[in-house]
Amino acid sequence: MSARAYSPAWRRALGYTGLTVMAVLFIFPFIFSVMNSLKTDPQATNDAISLIPRPVSFAAWKQIFGVGAAGTNTDFPRWLFNSVFVSVCITLGRVFLDSLAGYALARLRFPGRKLIFGFIIATLAVPSVVLMIPIFLVLKQLGIFNSYQGMILPMLVDVAGIFLMRQFFLQVPDALEEAGRIDGANMWQIFWRVVLPVVRPGVLALTILSFNASWNQFMFYQVATISPKYYTLVTGLANLVGGGLSAGNQFPLKLGASVLTVLPMVILFVVLQKYFVRGAAAGAVKG
Amino acid sequence: MASTFGAEPSRRRGGPSSGPPVGGPAGETLEVAGPGGGRVASAGVAVPLASASGGLTVPATVQERAGVSGERRAPPSRYPGRHLGLGKRHKGAVPRATGALHKGEGVFGWLFISPALAILVLFVVLPIFLAFYVSFTNWSGLTPPLSRNVQLVGLANYRQLLAQPGLYQANFAESVRNVFYYVIFTVPLQTALALGLAVLVNNKFLKAKAFFRGAYYLPSVTSSIAITVIFMYLFQGQGVVNMIFHFFGWSNPPDWIYDQNGLFTTILSAIGVNSPGWGNHLVMGLSAWQWLAGPSIGMCVMIVMVSWTTAGTFMLFFLAALQQISDDIDEASEIDGATAWQRFRRVTVPLLRPTLVLVFTLGFISTWQVFDQSFLLGPANPTDITPAYYAYQVSFQDSGFGMGAAIAFLLFGFIVVLTLLQRKFVKEDLTK
Question: How far is B384 from chain A (nearest CA, A)?
Answer without folding.
Answer: 15
